[in-house]
Design a protein that fits this description.
By secondary structure, this protein is α/β, with parallel strands linked by helices. It contains 2 helices and 6 strands, in the order H-E-E-E-E-E-E-H. The protein has a domain of about 70 residues. Helix content is about 20%, strand content about 20%. The protein has a 4-stranded mixed β-sheet, covered by helices on one side.
Amino acid sequence: MEAATQPGSPSRVFVIPAKVGWSDIGSWAAVYELLAAQSGAKDGANIAAGPHFAVDAERNYLWSPKKFVAAVGVRDLVLVDTDDALLVCARDRSQDVGKIVKWLEERRTKSLL
């Protein structure tokens, strides 16, 4: 878009009105909400990527495509498993992941980012 705003630019921008949903996927809680809505999951469902089993566990986002996740008696959690790190946080605190990112940047541990 920047090129189109420059004086004398041959670039053109066109706008077409449309009704398309918008969700700012800025947190893991938002990812949970989006995936739950897309899948038509019932209220209180766990959303998971990968093998899992839950006992008395509700409204959790369990992203671990390679490892089996067993969730017992937990609610409203985010669990994200990657090859080199594991994140566990309350869904309503998932915006605070930015604090961890800042901490990692200060310690020059970019391999985890």
